[in-house]
Amino acid sequence: MPTISMFYGIIIRMYFAPGEHQPPHFHVYYNEFKASVDIHSCEVIDGNLPIRQTKLALAWAELHQEDLLADWTLVMNGEEPFKIQPLQ
Fold it and tell me: What distance in Å separates the CA atoms of residue 36 and residue 16, rounded to the nearest whole number?
């Protein structure tokens, strides 16, 4: 699963697998925590993170929603996703 961005100890990944289940989403890792975030709604749909890291990851997702959707299209076609700028 490629890492598409990293910031403040948060790792953002997207499965590189055609046929990955819907809705379009990405995975967030922070220490022992992990969550899945819906790209369209920018909401956590599975798992959990500390409040601060949740806010950072969701703010980043809102800023990069178009990039995330483009990456989702790539991985659904069996292609590697592009890196996305970290939150600064």
Answer: 15
Domain boundaries, the chain: 3-49+62-76
Q: What is the pLDDT of residues 16-73, one digit of tens each?
A: 766 667 889 999 999 999 999 999 999 999 999 999 999 999 999 999 999 999 999 9
* Residue type at position 88: Q
Q: Return the structure tokens found at 29.
A: 């890792």
SS3 helix, strand, coil % of the chain, rounded to 5?
30, 30, 40
Which DSSP category does 8 fall into? T
- pTM of the predicted protein model: 0.91
